Request: fold
Amino acid sequence: MKTTIAAALALSLGVGGATRAQDGSLPVQQFAPAPGGDNNFVTVQGSGLLAHLTPAAGIYLNYAHEPLILLRIGTDEVTQLVEHQLQVDLVAALGILDVLEVGLAIPLTIYQTQGASSGSFRPAALDAFVTGDLRLYPKVSILHDPEGFGLAFLAALSLPTGSPDNLQGNESITIEPRLVAQYQITEVFRGALNLGVLWRPETQNLFNIDVGSELTFGAALEYEVVEDT
Reply:
């Protein structure tokens, strides 16, 4: 997991009665699965790398109901900017020389709808199918003991291939240097911590919310119920 944009935005408007159109954009989709196979914990990175020239690929499907709403202070009026959102993430990675792993993620929103207009707000129309920002994950192993402690460094890069007008993607590139620590607690139990800084050179805003650079973190625990064969 990582820090995310709040799903509810509180607005205080000085003029009432008139319908207000949507103004600005935010990258609503925050689910970002990590490429690299079983070395990772879905969205949290582990310190392990794929072996030299070993590939890994996967597909994730996620659905969100009302991931972004507006709440008007004083009247408690609620508007759903996004009502339904269904996304597929295609991920792949390749190990290089046992010290480097390069991952790729392609997010595709395959269905989304805006909510209905309320008394004061009119959500912008959204395209049903939208591509998100392409993400690259170069990861370098610093230390990895399969039976103990591991440490890795990763610099996640996103390219502005999405559609901010459809609330999908950033308006510029983003770079997220991230430190990855992992500890193998027992043969079947392990945990990981991620800590990073997401640099966003261009601030995005929606009404009274500004989103710039962020501190990011993630934590995960895994217990192996069935041993690998």
The first strand starts at residue 8 and ends at 11. The two ends are 29 Å apart (CA to CA).
